[in-house]
TrEMBL record:
PROSITE patterns: HTH_LUXR_1 (PS00622), HTH_LUXR_2 (PS50043), RESPONSE_REGULATORY (PS50110). Residues 3-120 form the Response regulatory domain. This is DNA-binding response regulator. Residues 147-212 form the HTH luxR-type domain. PANTHER family: TRANSCRIPTIONAL REGULATORY PROTEIN NARL-RELATED, TWO-COMPONENT RESPONSE REGULATOR. The modification 4-aspartylphosphate is found at D54.
Length: 221
């Protein structure tokens, strides 16, 4: 049973999400939070598998709450962010903070439930078209306060896998591309993420852009 902490400052939305999750096979609601501070506290107390996180909330917003939850006692829950099209700048920040992925609030119920299972399994949910637009828009902007990761510690194979992760490929697809086993890809990915101090695959995607492995606007096949 996958436990989910539902976080949203709007009572009706929060209640609706909780009811949907409770009715779904294999899912259960660990708790509900109305703001970021409560979400951080309940995540530490209840230890849910997934936190379904709203972005725009009074007080501590979803981005800051995500960063604090991900930095908590290991293993931290996976965070799935809910957003709308007009909050692009928050999505980039959420990925940097360690969110496992994001969905739009108008996502159909069946897709939301599938997304929760995906994130709970340790995979990252990145809608390719939206994610690519968001990451390209923000990575190409100057960020002197956030230097790009140093790729020097990576082996050539690890660097190539980071590039392929940045294109949105799954571990299975990367294994096919490099003609290696999926287990080998997972091992290299775990090592490169440790070397770069990355806590999620989403952060690896951002790192691939920030370091120039993926050039915005260019097709990477």
């Amino acid at each position: 049973m996958t436990s989910v902490l539902v976080v949203d400052d709007q009572v009706l939305i929060r209640a609706g999400l909780a009811a949907l999750i409770r009715a779904a096979p294999g899912l259960d609601v660990a708790g509900e939070a109305a703001d970021g501070e409560e979400a951080v506290a309940l995540a530490a107390e209840l230890r849910p598998d997934v936190v379904l996180m709203d972005i725009r909330m009074p007080g501590l917003n979803g981005v800051a709450a995500t960063a604090r939850i991900v930095a908590g006692a290991p293993p931290p829950p996976r965070v799935l962010v809910l957003t709308t099209f007009d909050l692009d700048e928050y999505i980039y920040a959420a990925l940097r903070a360690g969110a496992g992925g994001f969905l739009l609030k108008d996502t159909p119920p069946e897709r939301l439930l599938a997304a929760i299972h995906t994130v709970a399994a340790g995979d990252t949910l990145l809608t390719p078209s939206v994610t690519r637009r968001l990451v390209e828009a923000h990575v190409t902007s100057p960020r002197p306060d956030r230097p790009a990761p140093d790729l020097a510690p990576l082996t050539p194979r690890e660097t190539e896998i980071l590039r392929l992760v940045g294109t949105g490929r799954s571990n299975t697809a990367i294994a096919r591309t490099l003609v290696v086993s999926e287990a080998t890809v997972k091992t290299h990915l775990a090592r490169l993420m440790a070397k770069l101090a990355l806590s999620s695959r989403a952060q690896a995607v951002v790192a691939a852009y920030e370091t120039g492995l993926i050039v915005p606007g260019r097709r990477d096949d």
